[in-house]
Amino acid sequence: MIDKNQNRRDFIKNLALTGSVAALAASPWLSVLADNSITKGPNEQIQIAVIGTGDRGKQLIRHLFEIPGKPNFKLLAICDNFQLHLDNTLELLKEHNCSPKTYTNHLQLLENEKLDAVIIATPLHQHAQIAINCMQSGIHVFCEKAMARNLEDIKRMYDTHIQQNRILQIGHQRLFNPVYLEGMQRIHNGDLGTIGQIRAYWHRNNNWRRSLPNNDKSLERKINWRLYKEYSAGLLTELLSHQIQVAIWALQKTPISVMGTGSIRFWKDGREVNDNIALIYSFEDGTQFVYDSMTSNKKYGLEEQIMGHKGTIEFEVNRQYSETPPAAPGIQQLINNVEHGLFDNLPIGGSSWVPETASKYKGEPIVKTNDLGDTTLELEAFLKFVRAGSAPEKITKEGYNASIWTILGEQAINTGEQLHMPSEFIL
Ligand SMILES: NC(=O)c1ccc[n+]([C@@H]2O[C@H](COP(=O)([O-])OP(=O)(O)OC[C@H]3O[C@@H](n4cnc5c(N)ncnc54)[C@H](O)[C@@H]3O)[C@@H](O)[C@H]2O)c1
Fold first, then answer.
1. Measured in angstroms, how far is the CA atom of residue 396 from the centroid of ligand 1?
2. Is the CB of 126 under 6 A from ligand 1?
3. Whose CA is nearest to atom 37 of ligand 1?
4. Measuring from atom 7 of ligand 1, which residue has the nearest CA?
5. How many angstroms separate the Cα of 275 from the Cα of each of 55, 219, 255, 280, 408?
6. What is the pTM for the complete model shown?
7. Binding site membership of 234 for ligand 1 (Cβ less than 6 Å)
8. Which domains does the chain have, with CATH numbers?
């Protein structure tokens, strides 16, 4: 049987060893992840708390306990201002023989516990104040994406991380996903040639609502915070923020402008955030990042398509396509002709068909097995950073730039203008 953990170790190590200088500079956290000699204080237990124990907080806790090699940490406390979620989390933790202290206010948590690190998974509008309070108390922070609800809070978080010299890692788990790590290495090695456009989308067909405990209507805004502007920018901060991070990582540069449009087209149910959005981000060299998201059709699902003059990568389906695919061998051509007949319709414009063989070109997988969970890897990396006392600065900048351009996207939609980054937010 293949040892999944050994596979994972070998894979990461190999990427860290074989990457070009450009590729390693684009993903410097890879070297930290591959380094198993980070032994500073190996016997010292890392003391952690999780603030916000809703859906994502619970998932992160599960992943913490799945990190291979059982890193030496203790989940000392959990904090949530909703008792039901604290209770559910304590229940979940029983299987790990873990019974952390509970808090309903993060300031009391900070006052009473001696912590090395916190994981923050509260709704977006709470991230900034909690993260800043933690860093000012000398604690390293892993905070879920996006960073904050407005540009000023994003910058305040970043500045506090610099002033306090504390780690600030934002929960963009694709940064640790083996498919993305391998694909990005190819992109940064130049395998796709010149990238002219990146297209990304995230389509769903549901109302994006969560049911209210005991059907208690007074909990609507607390439970469905994503649907209200005070707490969230909806599809932008929840979904686009992941995918613009991928675009910025691929291109190794930030946009210079964004324009966009959006509306509540379908779910006219009292929500305040748009249920469909479309945006175009432009880069100085002329590259564009074209994005759309909607919640009333799921046919196309989600994808990030990185399109260069030599090839294309589609990360979500783990595929790379060459612009000059190998021709099918003669016998294959014959089989294809028989199977498809000569009367197969070619799509207008041709797209990915190779007309002379009538075989659909399906590209090649980027990685062969993809059983290496990215959320576990991002938490493993965070613990390593905490042990080492620092993280590559680029990891914070990935979160920062993705978050800033997400909020600028929201402003572009709201104003109908093409917006540029205000100079005070340029790092
Ligand atoms: N990386 C990912 O793929 C991913 C996936 C889902 C959610 N998220 C992010 O995780 C965060 C949480 O999302 P969720 O779906 O778990 O939301 P949720 O509503 O299920 O959970 C949020 C929790 O925070 C608690 N909370 C609110 N204010 C608090 C405060 N001041 N102090 C302590 N606890 C407080 C709530 O009671 C709730 O239990 C969001 O930022 C979201 O964008 C990330």
1. 20
2. yes
3. 82
4. 56
5. 21, 21, 24, 17, 18
6. 0.93
7. no
8. 4-173+373-396 (3.40.50.720), 176-370+405-425 (3.30.360.10)
Q: Is the CB of 79 under 6 A from ligand 1?
A: yes
**Counting runs of H as helices and runs of E as strands, what totals does the chain give?**
15, 16
In this structure, what token pair is assigned to residue 269?
């149910």
Which SS3 state, helix, strand or coil, does residue 73 take?
strand
- Encode pLDDT of 283-325 as tens digits: 999 999 999 999 999 999 999 999 999 999 999 999 999 999 8
For the stretch 328-359, pLDDT in tens is 666 566 666 666 555 455 555 555 555 554 45
* Rounded CA separation 320/305 (Å): 10
Ligand 1 geometric centre to CA of 56 (Å): 6
> Hey, what amino acid is at 241?
S
Query: With a cut of 70, which residues of the chain have pLDDT below it?
Result: 1-4, 38-43, 328-359, 370-372
Q: In a 3-state reduction of DSSP, which class is residue 143?
A: strand
Ligand 1 proximity of 144 Cβ (cutoff 6 Å): yes
Is the CB of residue 57 below 6 angstroms from any atom belonging to ligand 1? yes
